[in-house]
Amino acid sequence: MPVGDEALRFAERLLALLDAAHYTATHKFATLLALIDVAAERTGPDRSVPDTLSATEVGRRVIELY
Question: To 5 degrees, how large is the angle CA 30–CA 23–CA 15?
Answer without folding.
Answer: 55
